[in-house]
Amino acid sequence: MPSSPPPSSAVLATTSATPISDDSSLTYRPSRPPSLNYSLAPRRRKFAIASFLILIFIEAGVIPLIVFYAIRWGAHLNNTKNLAIITSIVGTYSSYKLARRSWYLFISDHGHQRRPLGASRFGPDAFTIQIGLAMTGFFVPLVIGSSVNPASVHTVSMSLSCFMIAFCVPLLITSVWPHKLKMPFRVSSMPPWTGLPPAMYTLVEDIVAVDGGGCVEFRQAWRIRYEHSAIMRRIIRITSFYWGASGCICAAAFIAIAWTTPEDIGYGIGWGLPWLWAFTSLAFTVRWVKKELKREQEEWNTVGVHELFNLHIDQTLDEKAVAREVNDYNEAQDGV
């Protein structure tokens, strides 16, 4: 798989932006799954992912735990001052990342290359909305718990668990009713009143296209792969259901434990166990997805694997041209 998408985004700046309806003309029968035109092989991408995971874990996992117990057992400050210090620290790195992402998506001169298919300049993608709701769920108990006098350790302990619930509910709902739920507004590349795929589809599309630099080429390649592969659709639905169901169940358990145990124990559970769930689930997901992708490759010509499913995504002439470039590249690769 190539390390960067071969089609050029320059076409976006040269052709008409008049919306046209999607069609199924860009179909083909390759002997292997269509390439996603994106790879994690470059060291800079692996380094970026590792750096993000480490820094976000330090910000919302290590620092809240170390600072809380150090001040509580070392400096012997009361809970109000202790939690006020923690609240002032948490959110700095994540806020920077969200601001940087918004710059890429809305303000940058090359933002049109990263936006969802058919979206306007200031139309947010699904990940922006989903992470915004999750961050609200995170900061509400954090701010309320640290603002009351005396501060409520139990309330602050709910912060990560509330984040999990707000982030995982869309994953769960859309996986239980895939392509059944419809929204009156655009959800990433999905037009209004179009059946929504499991939310993992839009998460992968938005994160790779915007944060990973895959741009519109990846959005098109991702759409083509999803539409043509029954196994890929199964992967997306199962991962959406797993993360959604396990996240909601574990978060509810963490909240219940945090409120029924002493403050010291409840705080450690509330800020520690969510990370254990996240990293364990991530390791399980990576291993299982690799296994399924190998099976997709081996069984591609089996009946029921290469099976077309139309997402009904409206595209501009610009995006249609990029889709043809991606399609031509896949056919060329299939002939190698």
Automatic annotation (TrEMBL):
Q: Which UniProt keywords apply?
A: Membrane, Transmembrane, Transmembrane helix
* Superkingdom of the organism of origin: Eukaryota
Transmembrane intervals: 47-71, 122-144, 156-177, 241-259, 265-286
- Name of the featured protein: Uncharacterized protein
Organism lineage reads as: Eukaryota, Fungi, Dikarya, Basidiomycota, Agaricomycotina
